[in-house]
Amino acid sequence: MHLLETRDLTYVYPGNVTGLDHVNFIAGRNARIAVIGANGAGKSTLFKHFNGILRPTSGTVLVHGEPVTQKNIREVRKFVGLVFQNADDQIFSPTVEQDVAFGPMNLGLDADTVSHRVEEALAMVGIEHLKERVPHHLSGGEKKRVAIAGVIAMEPQVIVLDEPTAGLDPKGVKDLISVINALAREYGITVIFSTHDVSLVPEVADYIYVMHRGSFVAQGSVSTVFADLELLCSVRLDVPVIPKLIRQLREEGLDIGMAYTLDEAKTAFLKSYRERA
Amino acid sequence: MIEDLFFLEKQTYKKSLVHSLDARVKIIIAFAAIIAIVAVPYSTVIYTVGAVFFIFFAVMWAACGLSPVVYLKRLVVILPFGIFLIVFQIFFKNRYYESFTTIATLPFGIEVYAESVQFASILLVKFLVSVSFIILLSSTTRTQDLLEGAGRLGLPAEFTLTLGMMLRYLYVFGYMIRKMTQSLETRCFDPFDRALSYRYRLEKVAYAVGTLFIRSYEQGERTYMAMLCRGYGRESHLYISRKPLQRRDWIFLSTGMVLVILTPVLAWTHFITLV
């Protein structure tokens, strides 16, 4: 049984604008999934279906095998946590501690458990020192981590992040990548995120869905998806710079293995250099 | 105007003995002082009570290390509301005096009464003391601490959650307005620039206000969705952790309360024996 699944999910916005068109999506346990697509491709619309914020025009959303209904909406939102693109949409309490405690409080937990969950969630994203701070004194990256902590505190099995790196500086992106990777690798949480910044995808995803005009036009592993440059260009995306460079070097006749991350590239270049030497 | 919000917040982040007191202690002292001064019967005894309370306030203000200018600036903003009501009292008779002595006659048969002037001065003392303690409280206590303090003192959960969100978005919109103002300034727009037509300036300011209204509506929609995602429901309330009062809080609270209660009681008793 998949943790999260959509079957022929279609959503039509008022005004007869199709947001999603027969989308079939599967997320398994402990997966790291990227949904990539240009602006307006339908990524946020899809994510809002994952925890019942939007209801399908047709098709089904299954969470742990169960369709999302009004009756189980609370359980669904406990199971699938959604982190919004703009942290200011999500952080609405006067202090970081109170905001992270908001979800657990809504689950009806006692004060000691709430306090424990807040401490745990803050520690998981490395912002224990910000506990007493007010949100408007935080940087964009810190706010993003507070937003993630607020969702983690509800102990979901799936975390959905809508454009998590939008508006962050390089250090903020780097910190966030390690948080996302830790969630999947250390805590076994399934992480689904959207982005149109393809360069970070190989660092944080095992599986990719490519979205265009409300439909998936490709899906597969990092190597499968990024091998099709023409397709990515046709949906207003690009290939990360590392595989792009290696592909061009190969076209020039250099014998070098394909790589997608910095570490893979380093290994491939060293191997090629040593073989030539 | 919006910069005043950030200025006020900056004052509350300073470090002093008064700043570091628990918010509950400051809330209780401030409201006790206001209730006590308001409860003093309308008589000249108010001058003695008012003077003692004002000295208490002045000592606290000196201890908090903020400039008197900060107090005066904030007082000037609030004064017109009270002064307007107080000044008008001198032209009217009131139920606290049996006879009235005219001390001046103005055109249109308007008279100024000695007793009404005294009544207005009593109101002024009550107003000044009450406002001063509120200024002290809000200048030395962070907004989130005020809210937590009020919550720990028993403010209903429905209020703390709503007020908490209001405080949070007060600053979000504060920054939004600041950015909008800066973007207008970078394009050389000044709403008070007489070189531009009045209609044009009014139109641009109205656009900015309209944009802010739409953005606040959209923000509300997005925030509500985010709240639903985290299980928001009828039972939702703000998390306020337990925090026992420290020894110095207890000492200050008991000393302050003794002063606030005994001053009007002793002054009134003394006044009665004299009469």
Task: Give an overview of the whole structure.
The complex is a heterodimer of chains A (277) and B (275). Chain A is an alpha/beta fold and 277 residues long. Chain A is built from twelve helices and ten strands. Chain B folds into two domains: 168 residues, no CATH class; 74 residues, no CATH class. Chain B has ten helices and two strands. In chain B, a hairpin with a 3-residue loop joins strand 1 and strand 2. In chain B, helix 1 crosses helix 8, helix 3 packs parallel to helix 10 and helix 5 packs antiparallel against helix 6. Chain B is globular. Chains A and B meet through helix 2, helix 3, helix 4 and helix 5 of A and helix 7, helix 8 and helix 9 of B.
Q: What is the helix content of chain B?
A: over 70%
Share of residues in strands of chain B: under 5%
Structural class of chain A: alpha/beta
Mean pLDDT of chain A: 91
- Gyration radius of chain A, rounded: 20 Å
**3D shape of chain A:** globular
What's the mean pLDDT score of chain B?
A: 89
Order of strands across the biggest sheet of chain A? 6-7-8-3-9-10
CATH class of the largest domain in chain A: Alpha Beta
What topology, given as strand order, has the largest sheet of chain B? 1-2
Give the N-to-C terminal Cα separation of chain A. Answer: 51 Å
Helix and strand layout, with pairings?
The complex is a heterodimer of chains A (277) and B (275).
Chain A: E1 4-13, E2 17-27, E3 32-37, H1 43-50, E4 58-63, E5 66-67, H2 73-79, E6 80-83, H3 87-90, H4 96-106, H5 111-124, H6 140-152, E7 158-161, H7 170-185, E8 190-195, H8 201-204, E9 207-212, E10 215-221, H9 222-226, H10 229-234, H11 241-251, H12 262-276
Parallel strand pairs in A: 3-8, 3-9, 6-7, 7-8
Antiparallel strand pairs in A: 1-2, 1-4, 4-5, 9-10
Helix pairs in contact in A: 4-5, 4-6, 5-6, 6-7
Chain B: H1 2-12, H2 17-20, H3 23-39, H4 45-64, H5 68-88, E1 102-106, E2 110-113, H6 114-140, H7 143-152, H8 157-186, H9 198-229, H10 247-274
Antiparallel strand pairs in B: 1-2
